[in-house]
Amino acid sequence: xxxxQEARAIDxxxxxxxxxxxxxxxxxxxxxxxxxxxxxxxxxxxxxLPHNYVLRLEGFFIAAQLETMNFWLGLPEANEWLPCHIxxxxxxxxxxxxxxxxxxxxGTPYWE
Length: 112
What we know:
Blueprint: E1 2-3, E2 6-7, H1 20-28, H2 33-44, H3 53-72, H4 78-98
Antiparallel strand pairs: 1-2
């Protein structure tokens, strides 16, 4: 990309064409819960979502975080911050998911 006539690299590591709910779940895992409904509201103006989309998006959110952690395990500096990250996810999103409690639109995100 270019900014003021200067070339700047951007990361397309997670880009691709996948199952649309997985792509949405992945995206939602990096957006604060207070703003996720706004994204989905805009999305549904163009495309329909299935009746059980929240449960499915939460499952894909979890899958996206597990896949991301798998990547981070290979980074030497991850030993400093990854245990805290995993702990927060386990106590918050993962716990609520296995207990069949919705988390997508509420709570504190794992990065806070």
